[in-house]
């Protein structure tokens, strides 16, 4: 069973929340704690978030207190560095790009949503975020860890397959390196809802 | 026990009216759901932060919309000029103000503050405040100083109204708890306000 192999459960999830609004930080922190996330770190700016992630200095996704960050939730509109800019910085870091990043915004602007998803955001949540949003998100992230476990198993299996097998044929298009396909790839890598 | 029952009924009536009159919306219910025995003061804490934040934002907004040259009006009146001179000066200043109002007010900054206010009021469920902020932002986009000033007053008004209501609501909750009862959960409130 996948759940037996899963090395990450909700109670171990460490989430980094980034929002310039104190009210929103308090609410998101509570939402995450109620959804059984082990640790929530809330910071007020993109710059602080990068400091915490060690992106401006040491190279490590371990926070100061030694907990690895499993999910980053950031507000879009923030003074200084926007959530989008933070997303780009995270995705361009070899250490941190695997961490799912969720963008939150009170404004449902399609162009904004597209831009964030294209840049690799896991999801775009419209504020105010509620409990069902967070629980669904938590399940997606945990499912992602389970899928990674399964993928590892699948990779070993594939080495035994011949190039003419149906599975190998299905996988070949994935290997093409065109820009549109790479966007598709990131979609496929995202765990299904 | 009778006292508790009465207090509870008053509470339900009051909160129902708040929803019906759109002072509060569903987001407030969501906040109450996040409160439990492990965090029994959650709503009070969030609402308190909202009050503090908002007072600051309102101050920032007021000062950023202040057109400094309006002080000249006061200055002129203090000079006690002859009527003719006063008319001429007023007219000149009026023209000057028309010309320079775009340059004096930083609408982008104002918009930034309003955006913040809209966000925090939305996060606690203060619907009327949020709606007033939305309209205020439209005036900012149009660089309509008159509209902005008027709507800032409305936003302020709505904020103090909802602050008052929320303080009353939270006080009523305290009274119920002190009388030994439990605060009625909103799911149990008749769905009048949803119509």
UniProtKB/TrEMBL annotation, chain A:
Residue numbers of 4-aspartylphosphate PTMs: 75
GO terms of biological process kind: cytokinin-activated signaling pathway; phosphorelay signal transduction system
SMART domains linked to this entry: REC
Name this polypeptide is given: Two-component response regulator ARR6-like
Presence of the UniProt keyword Magnesium in the record: no
Protein species of origin: Olea europaea subsp. europaea
A UniProt-annotated Pfam family: Response_reg
Region (Disordered): 172-193
Keywords: Phosphoprotein, Transcription, Transcription regulation, Two-component regulatory system
TrEMBL record, chain B:
Pfam family, one: Hpt
Signal peptide stretch: none
Organism domain of life: Eukaryota
Cellular location(s): Cytoplasm, Cytosol; Nucleus
Membrane found in the keyword field: yes
Transmembrane segments: 82-99
CDD domains from the UniProt entry: HPT
A GO BP annotation: phosphorelay signal transduction system
Domain comment, as recorded: Histidine-containing phosphotransfer domain (HPt) contains an active histidine that mediates the phosphotransfer.
Function: Functions as a two-component phosphorelay mediators between cytokinin sensor histidine kinases and response regulators (B-type ARRs). Plays an important role in propagating cytokinin signal transduction.
Listed name of the protein: Histidine-containing phosphotransfer protein
Source organism: Olea europaea subsp. europaea
């Amino acid at each position: 069973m996948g759940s037996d192999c899963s090395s990450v459960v909700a109670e171990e999830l460490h989430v980094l929340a980034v929002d310039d609004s104190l009210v929103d930080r308090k609410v998101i922190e509570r939402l995450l704690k109620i959804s059984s996330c082990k640790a929530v770190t809330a910071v007020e700016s993109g710059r602080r978030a990068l400091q915490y992630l060690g992106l401006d200095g040491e190279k490590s996704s371990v926070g100061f207190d030694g907990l690895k960050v499993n999910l980053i939730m950031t507000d879009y509109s923030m003074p200084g560095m926007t959530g989008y800019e933070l997303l780009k910085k995270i995705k361009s870091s070899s250490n941190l790009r695997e961490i799912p990043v969720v963008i939150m915004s009170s404004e449902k602007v399609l162009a904004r949503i597209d831009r964030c998803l294209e840049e690799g955001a896991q999801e775009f949540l419209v504020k105010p975020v509620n409990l069902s949003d967070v629980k669904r998100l938590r399940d997606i992230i945990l499912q992602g860890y389970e899928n990674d476990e399964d993928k590892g198993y699948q990779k070993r299996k594939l080495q035994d397959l011949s190039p003419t097998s149906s599975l190998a044929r299905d996988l070949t298009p994935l290997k093409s390196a065109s820009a549109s396909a790479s966007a598709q790839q990131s979609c496929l890598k995202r765990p299904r809802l | 026990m009778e006292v508790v029952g009465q207090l509870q009924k008053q509470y339900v009536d009051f909160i129902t009216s708040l929803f019906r009159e759109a002072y509060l919306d569903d987001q407030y219910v969501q906040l109450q759901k996040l409160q439990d025995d492990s965090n029994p003061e959650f709503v009070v804490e969030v609402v308190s932060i909202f009050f503090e934040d908002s007072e600051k934002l309102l101050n920032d907004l007021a000062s950023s919309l202040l057109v400094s040259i309006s002080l000249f009006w006061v200055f002129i009146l203090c000079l006690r000029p002859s009527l003719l001179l006063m008319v001429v000066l007023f007219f000149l200043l009026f023209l000057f103000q028309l010309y320079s109002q775009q340059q004096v007010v930083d609408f982008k900054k104002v918009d930034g503050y309003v955006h913040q206010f809209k966000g925090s009021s939305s996060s606690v469920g203060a619907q009327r405040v949020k709606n007033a902020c939305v309209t205020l932002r439209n005036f900012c986009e149009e660089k309509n100083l008159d509209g902005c000033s008027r709507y800032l007053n409305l936003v302020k008004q709505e904020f103090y109204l909802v602050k008052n209501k929320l303080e009353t609501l939270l006080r009523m909750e305290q009274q119920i708890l002190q009388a030994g009862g439990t605060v009625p959960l909103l799911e149990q409130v008749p769905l009048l306000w949803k119509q």
